[in-house]
Structures are given as structure tokens and as C-alpha cells.
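Usage

Read records sequentially. Each one opens with the input sequence:
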Amino acid sequence: MVERSRKLDFLAHVILILGIVVIAFPLYVAIVASTHTAAEIFQAPMPMLPGSHLVQNYREALLGTGNAMGSNAPVARMMFVSLVMALTIAIGKIAISLLSAFAVVYFRFPFRMLCFWAIFATLMLPVEVRVGPTYHVVASLGLINTYAGMTIPLIASATATFLFRQFFLTVPEELAEAARMDGAGPMRFFRDILVPLSSTSIAALFVIQFIYGWTQYLWPLIATTSDNMYPIVIGIRYMIAGGESLTPWNLVMATAMLAMIPPALVVILMQKWFVKGLVDTEK
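and closes with the structure output:
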């Protein structure tokens, strides 16, 4: 048993507070910078209190009415592209992984385990490794600057397939036998029994995969060449393309704050399901 000490409690709280300050300070600086003009930000020292241009900066960022030398694409459009991309990747990964894990666990066919380990082996081939051949295929199919070209190469997930397979292996065989006795086919058993039982795991994976899709950088950078198809991460990159002296850092910081809102909302709104899906052992 660990004995509690006031000194140790005080030290632990001091360390926690210092950690919060170190993590939160850059976020605070970004918030403050998004409320000033570009000229005020370039002053030395930079103002550390919020300014009076919050509404103007965020309006210019959302509507793309700034005078930056880099990209002036509307942030509202970039956020929509990122949202479509993140939702498609998250839902697609979960759907394909559920079906592939269901097939591996409940169907008996030749080389079943070989197929599973072949899927699992794709963990050694992320999109960063196969970016050249993948781009060639996408370009050959005419999918550059399309939602399909930005999402389909990222949908397959060996990790999610493995997690669902491990969960399905814990489901009692009696459930499958009872479903067969009641005349339920494989897909009805999958839809009415397995998917509801997997709800917490699905929620946890949705949060992870949504953030994964929202923060994608390398593949959208290659697969898009048009301003109206930039996700917000790429948009921020092109907003500073004009050089440091010409960069509207107030708009860049406003865009960065806007980019944080959707994933933060997903984590906050689904926090209960996310934690339950990761730690729930009553399976």
C-alpha cells in the first residue's frame, strides 16, 4: 500500500500544473495571435493579451478574403473537404474491417488464416511506403482532385480488422447456433447481433480513425492540385507559402484554431464511448 504524503501530493500537483502550462502555452499564443493584425504580431515583443480583430480575422479566414501571398482558399471549404475525407475514411475503415473480421472468424474457406495474416502484414506497407505506386494507380484512374482519390487508398485498416477479429472470437458460439436455429442467415446474425455487441469498439475506433483522416497530410498533398480540394491541413501549409515576411500569421492562427474544433468536438462528445470501448472488459 502506498502511503500518501502532503509533500508528495504537493509535488505531484506542481508537476501536473507545469505540464499543463507547457502544453497550453502554445495554444494560448495561437489564440492571442488570431485576434491581432499581422503587423501587431510582428512587433517585438508580440502582444500576449487578446486583441480586437477576432471577428474580422475569423471571417477573413472562413471566407478566404485575405490578401495573403499564399493560398486564399476559404477555410469553410477546406473544413468541408476535411470533414468529408475524415468521415469517409472512418466509416469506410470500420465497415470494411467489420466485414473482413466477420468473414475470417465465422466462415470456413481454404487459406482462411493465410488471408488474415496477409491482411495483417499490410501494416508493414503504410501509404508513405507505397505512395509512388498508389499515386500511379490513382492518376491512371483519373481520381486526382476527387474525394475518391483522397480516401480510397486510406480506407483499408489491418489494425481495425485485427481488433474486431479478437472481439468476435470472444462472442459465445451459442449465439451463432441460436441464430441458425431461429433461421437467421449470416448477414442477419452479423447485422442484428455482432454489430450491436461491437458498438463500443466501433465508437472508439471511429474517434481514432476520424482524427487520423482529419490530420492526413502526405497523401492529400500529392493527390490534390486544386485550391477547392485542399483539406484544412494542406490549406494551412499553402497559407505560409509566400515566405515568412508575407505570411498573415493572424489568419494562419485563426485557421489552426478552426481546424482544431471538429476533432475536439468528436473527442468530447464521444469521450464516454471512447473510454468504454478501450477499457471495457465485460465481453
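Summary fields computed downstream for this record:
- The chain has a mean pLDDT of 85.
- Residues 6-61 form one domain.
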